[in-house]
């Protein structure tokens, strides 16, 4: 069966950055399963998997626009150090939960720390990066009506 909308696809992958450093992998774990055509994985990878079938192996290069987007400078924000009361030490790379404009919880990463302020970044950690996927498709099947109506694999 070829991968198309409303198929459940399971695949193994290794994700590397432009320097060849491994960022994520399914090695030693179950394959990743998603419902094709329902935004379960990044668009650039999903598009390349369309039409493939179980047993196929491929390498996919995903540009930022088809991955986690470009870096949005509006998501970089200087926050007064006092906003981190109760946190003894703040270091670049630390992650905190923040409340977005609509009240939703958002993860931010500390980029810089000065005596007066902390620069936090609300962009996805992989925003702005070219992503290299090594993929091996494990299985493809038709989704159940329930999976389609819920928009994800059960």
UniProtKB/TrEMBL annotation:
- Catalytically driven reaction(s): [protein]-peptidylproline (omega=180) = [protein]-peptidylproline (omega=0)
Gene3D superfamilies membership: 3.10.50.40
Enzyme Commission (EC) number:
5.2.1.8
Q: Where in the cell is it found?
A: Cytoplasm
Q: Name one GO cellular component term.
A: cytoplasm
Give the chief site where it resides.
cytoplasm
GO MF terms listed in the record are: peptidyl-prolyl cis-trans isomerase activity
PPIase FKBP-type domain: residues covered:
6-83
Q: Which GO terms describe its biological process?
A: protein refolding
One Pfam match: FKBP_C
Q: Which UniProt keywords apply?
A: Chaperone, Cytoplasm, Isomerase, Rotamase
The record, for PANTHER family, names: FKBP-TYPE PEPTIDYL-PROLYL CIS-TRANS ISOMERASE SLYD
Role noted for this protein: Also involved in hydrogenase metallocenter assembly, probably by participating in the nickel insertion step. This function in hydrogenase biosynthesis requires chaperone activity and the presence of the metal-binding domain, but not PPIase activity.
Give the family per the record. Belongs to the FKBP-type PPIase family.
Q: What is this protein called?
A: Peptidyl-prolyl cis-trans isomerase
Q: Which organism is it from?
A: Litorivivens lipolytica
């Amino acid at each position: 069966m070829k991968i198309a909308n409303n198929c459940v696809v399971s695949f193994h992958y290794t994700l590397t950055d432009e320097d060849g450093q491994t960022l994520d992998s399914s090695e030693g774990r179950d394959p990743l399963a998603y419902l094709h055509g329902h935004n379960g994985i990044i668009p650039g990878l999903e598009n390349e998997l369309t039409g493939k079938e179980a047993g196929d192996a491929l390498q996919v290069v995903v540009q930022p626009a088809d991955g986690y987007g470009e870096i949005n400078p509006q998501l970089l924000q200087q926050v007064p150090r006092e906003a981190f009361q109760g946190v003894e030490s703040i270091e670049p790379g630390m992650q905190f939960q923040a409340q977005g404009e609509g009240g939703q919880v958002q993860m931010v990463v500390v980029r810089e720390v000065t005596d007066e302020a902390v620069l936090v970044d609300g962009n996805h950690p992989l925003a702005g990066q070219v992503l290299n996927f090594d993929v091996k498709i494990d299985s493809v099947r038709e989704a159940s009506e329930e999976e389609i109506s819920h928009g994800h694999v059960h």
